């Protein structure tokens, strides 16, 4: 059953409305048809009762010679009339509620004192008077009304009147009413459900946008009260997140900036150290601190969140990054052709890809880069021929200032922020970075960007 249900709230709500209204319509129509059939039977029986009383009075007042002619004239396909010395209905024939209703109607027409002189019975359609007299109240469809009236001279007028069944429940009219009802419900319910679920789609888009741009404008405060309350809560949350990021950025930037002054003073004082070996070691340490402070300050500025989005050719952007690294003496290959328009923050994205490709070329001997378009995302795949990264360390390398043992030499100049910056930029675009070791050796890095 779950596989048959739609996967959306709107679709499930629409199905529930249609099924519920359809079942209620079927139940109400079944009740209506049942009551209508009973009403038609009673109205038909009342009409036939009037004719029976009229014919009985004419025959009662006619001479014996005229009775046969009147009986022949009164008979027709809808009311058979016979005259005999015996009643066509047994005196102990079973009675039912239809019988009692018609009995009271005939008693009212004949007047007081005549009720014992007539017998009434319902039989199945096509039964003879004799068979009908013994059948009791027949089924609900295809009935025949049997009435026997005793005249004053002891003769019996026997009446046989077929009662036509009402229209079938599954008639064309009923099917058309169902079709019209379903069509109307689907159209109106689809409109209402679409209107009611629109805030959910808006929240989903806003949450996705918040993951890409914490400075996005707030949602408009409109709609029903519950929606407005949720919008206000979401806008408050977004404002708190934005203030938190700004406060963190300002704090880290201030610390990094303030560290530059003592580092400069220490560099000046180091020049007065007479021991050349100790002086060179101290200057090298200070140079490393300056690089780390500069990288931290650049990371804290959060270029990915401040830069405006532009539509660029992603193939050309990746190609330019690979060409720059190749010119710097690194072994980089790029497999990509054509054009691919993509809305991004080009400076930040170029920086992130440069960090990933440079790491692969430096620590994995060479980097092979490919741009792979998919239905809902774009993947920049980077393969290298290095030793890979142990699985238990693959998440840790994204933390600030975390470096693997193989990259801790001073010649590499790494600060441990390259992967941190790269993932921060890619996540700011709504994507993510995945690492895995290739079976044939080396590391595969995938920067997955949403379309």
Element layout with pairings:
Elements: H1 9-61, H2 64-74, E1 80-84, H3 97-110, E2 118-124, H4 129-133, E3 143-150, E4 156-163, H5 172-212, H6 225-270, H7 276-301, H8 303-306, E5 310-313, H9 314-327, E6 332-335, E7 341-344, H10 346-363, E8 367-373, E9 377-384, H11 418-428, E10 432-437, E11 443-450
Parallel strand pairs: 6-8
Antiparallel strand pairs: 1-4, 2-3, 3-4, 5-7, 8-9, 9-11, 10-11
Helix pairs in contact: 1-2, 1-3, 1-5, 6-7, 9-10, 10-11
Low-confidence stretches: 125-141, 406-411
Radius of gyration: 47 Å
Instruction: Please describe the biggest sheet, giving its number of strands, its sense, and whether it closes into a barrel.
Output: 5 strands, mixed
The computed structural class is: alpha+beta
H/E series: HHEHEHEEHHHHEHEEHEEHEE
Mean pLDDT: 77
Number of helices: 11
Fraction of residues in β-strands: 15-25%
* Percent of residues in helices: 40-55%
Q: What strand line-up does the widest sheet have?
A: 6-8-9-11-10
- How far do the termini sit from each other? 34 Å
Could you say which overall geometry the principal axes of the C-alpha atoms support? rod-shaped
Number of strands: 11
